[in-house]
């Protein structure tokens, strides 16, 4: 930070400050540098980057910060998918993660994310199956907990031996507009 940069004072919740301090410590930056980097990253995500091209070291720094937020992004997607499936009366949720590019992460980092989230899902009583970094299938409950559908008598459709089934024909009417 240079002396020409503006100084801004603002209030943040104590828990957020603690999280930011921990992230700054892990990344080897000051608290201010961590906050600025994260703000820059959020502007970049919104497409509001004023610079034409980042320097490679800045790109690496921002990618590192973004990687640290991936578990939270995946966790939120899992929560939303489960809630949507509950509202629909289902016993399972399919969470697509393909747009996050988790498959291109180092395998150790992907495994760390999967282990962390798997422990949370397991502790909450869910069954789940990962499809690499592309998706996760989560189930809760079983088929027995789905109420039986009411019996509906379906009309039988038969074809006589000498009849051929053809698709229904449409009546096409051409309307010409008068000019």
Sheet/helix structural class: mainly alpha
Number of helices: 4
Strand content of the residues, in percent? 5-15%
Mean pLDDT: 80
What is CATH's topology name of the domain at 69-143?
Ribosomal Protein S8, Chain: A, domain 1
Element order: H for helix, E for strand:
HHHEHEE
Tell me the radius of gyration.
Answer: 27 Å
| CATH 2nd-level architecture of the domain at 69-143 | 2-Layer Sandwich
Q: What top-tier CATH class of the domain at 69-143 fits best?
A: Alpha Beta
Q: Indicate the overall shape.
A: elongated
What strand line-up does the widest sheet have?
Answer: 1-3-2
User: What's the story with the biggest beta sheet?
Assistant: 3 strands, antiparallel
CA(first)-CA(last) distance:
71 Å
The helix fraction, in percent, is: 40-55%
What is shown here, in short?
The protein has 179 residues and is mainly α.
